[in-house]
Design goal:
563 residues, four-stranded antiparallel beta sheet
Length: 563
């Protein structure tokens, strides 16, 4: 890509007399400024303006005119700004941006104060009068120029080429500009402005079209083909065909001339950035930041823990004071103290004291014994069990009976679970001894037991699906139910009606709900038997390394062993 060129500031501005005009070629794409009589302009830059915000100066807006160096633009925030041009279809409309451009141009030319030189500025054909008037006002009022002359760049170019002998007095001047194209006829060396033509297609449209073609042909590189790169490709490699149709035939027939005119453009390859290891100072800085953050979190946790400990100690002190008051009071005062504090009994207060004590130990980092945890859990779940009956209300007595029943049931289940675990461990030990003494006899017994349980489970499944006795092959709903299920259906049917009267009074009496206990018990017995058989079958299958559903493999193995 063409390197970005920032014009230096001229130093010979004072050498030119005030009568030397300053020539400005105010093009929509490029702004050129120089001295009359010189072959080349002194300065040339893009006729655009940007106003990004500086990243390190509290969002200060900076005006950037012309080309910009990408290496310097990283210090500016360009997300809220875009490239602006004072032109719209080669006519100046935005005079605010035009003033920025003229300031920059005069400054680069070396001017330090008002411009005391005449100005010659180009403009497009048939430029609107209001645009010329605003431009004149800007030059006279802002820069104090003594005089201004406007001219058409096509006419200047035609006259210059006429002096060089490239054209005669009669001809056409075709100007392909940034946003438009103009055709101006000349007769006897003078432009016929009334016969000029204009087309709103210019170089910017061609650049856009080229960029679209490249993006469609190479969609994976659409982001790499920017507008500036397409503009560069257009200027370096594109040309105007003298015979457009013959050019199409050349590329259509794939002639050697087409290969010669084909241009290959390599996208710039940027090596991936190498992550350099951080220095010792950077590591030390990050470690210090991490330690500071960790210390702040530890301080917050310590403050929160101290507040929690203070609250628990305060609550424990209040509960102990209540217990001291209860110990020093009689029965009437004790009832008043309990009603005032919202507790039902001293046992409930002791339970809260135990819970608060355990929470306090946990907050302080002290360990609690397993027995204390067990006692606390029991006291939390069943606080009324150890309270005497004479200290409870009728509602509390009912609740105490429920808690006693639940506690007894839970303890019984725990004891039964422990007993089953002990029996399973003893059985495993005995089976291991038998397997060690006589492995063949042990595995034969396991296989026989496996076949027996497998047949039993399969028979139970067939009974559920096909019924017990059905010679006709038809399966009815009643035939698919075993005895326990039929009994449950009978209980449900009779429970919903009161002695055949058709009135739904189920649930009005407490004994009605005993039906569910009976049904649940029968269902549990039935399911427990099924679960025991299936679990035993799974255990034996794991012993002999046979899956429960692969009976065909087991029968085959047994037949091989018997042969």
């Amino acid at each position: 890509m063409t390197p970005v060129y920032r014009p230096p500031r001229e130093t010979d501005f004072a050498r030119f007399p005030d009568s030397t005009p300053i020539v400005i070629d105010n093009g929509a794409s490029t702004f050129r400024i120089g001295w009359a009589g010189e072959a080349e302009p002194r300065l040339a830059f893009r006729n655009i303006v940007q106003r990004p915000r500086h990243r390190s100066s509290a969002g200060e807006t900076v005006t950037v005119v012309g080309d910009t160096d990408p290496a310097l633009m990283k210090y500016f925030d360009c997300t809220r700004t875009s490239i602006r041009s004072p032109f719209d279809d080669d006519v100046v409309y935005q005079f605010e941006y035009m003033e920025y451009i003229l300031d920059y141009g005069f400054d680069r030319l070396g001017a330090t104060s008002e411009i005391d030189h005449p100005i010659l500025m180009t403009e497009c054909e048939c430029n609107p009068s209001f645009s010329r008037a605003r431009m004149s006002e800007l030059l006279f009022e802002t820069y104090g120029v003594p005089s201004v002359a406007f001219g058409i760049d096509d006419a200047f170019s035609y006259k210059y080429n006429q002096k060089l002998g490239n054209c005669g007095e009669d001809g056409l001047a075709i100007s392909c500009e940034f946003g438009t194209c103009h055709v101006v006829p000349f007769l006897k060396g003078q432009p016929v402005l009334g016969a000029c033509c204009r087309t709103n297609v210019g170089g910017s449209h061609i650049t856009d079209f080229l960029r679209q073609l490249l993006s469609l042909k190479y969609p994976y590189h659409a982001a790499s083909v920017s507008w500036d790169k397409a503009e560069e490709l257009k200027k370096e490699h594109c040309y105007v065909a003298h015979d457009y149709m013959s050019e199409l035939e050349i590329f259509k027939n794939n002639k050697e001339e087409a290969e010669e005119k084909t241009r290959y453009w390599q996208l710039p390859w940027v090596p991936p950035p190498k992550d350099e290891p951080p220095s010792e100072e950077e590591l030390a800085r990050k470690a210090a930041i991490k330690e500071k953050s960790g210390q702040r979190l530890r301080d917050m946790a310590a403050a929160k823990r101290s507040q929690k400990i203070e609250g628990l100690e305060k609550k424990l002190s209040e509960l102990e004071d209540i217990m001291e008051q209860l110990d020093d009071s009689d029965e009437i005062e004790e009832t008043a103290i309990l009603s005032r504090t919202g507790y039902l009994s001293q046992q409930e207060i002791k339970s809260d004291i135990l819970k608060v004590t355990q929470s306090l130990r946990k907050a302080k980092g002290e360990s609690n014994g397993n027995e204390e945890n067990a006692d606390a859990s029991g006291a939390d779940k069943y606080p009324l069990v150890s309270v005497p009956d004479e200290m409870l209300t009728p509602e509390q007595l009912k609740e105490k009976k429920k808690q006693i029943l639940l506690k007894t049931t839970t303890e019984g289940r725990i004891r039964a679970k422990q007993r089953r675990a002990e029996e399973a461990a003893l059985r495993e030990k005995q089976e291991e001894e038998r397997r060690t003494e006589n492995p063949e006899l042990y595995f034969d017994e396991l296989r026989a037991r496996y076949l027996e349980l497998s047949e039993k489970v399969d028979q139970r499944k067939r009974q559920k699906v096909n019924g017990n006795n059905n010679s006709s092959g038809a399966v009815g709903r009643g035939e698919r139910l075993n005895a326990a299920q039929k009994e449950r259906m009978r209980l449900l049917t009779t429970a919903a009606f009161d002695r055949g009267k058709g009135e739904d009074t189920f649930g009005m009496r407490d004994e009605d709900w005993l039906v569910y206990n009976k049904m649940s018990k029968e269902n549990d017995d039935d399911n427990d038997g099924n679960d025991d058989d299936e679990s035993e079958l799974t255990r034996i299958a794991s012993k002999i390394q046979v899956r429960p559903h692969s009976q065909a493999f087991l029968f085959m193995m047994l037949s091989i062993l018997s042969n």
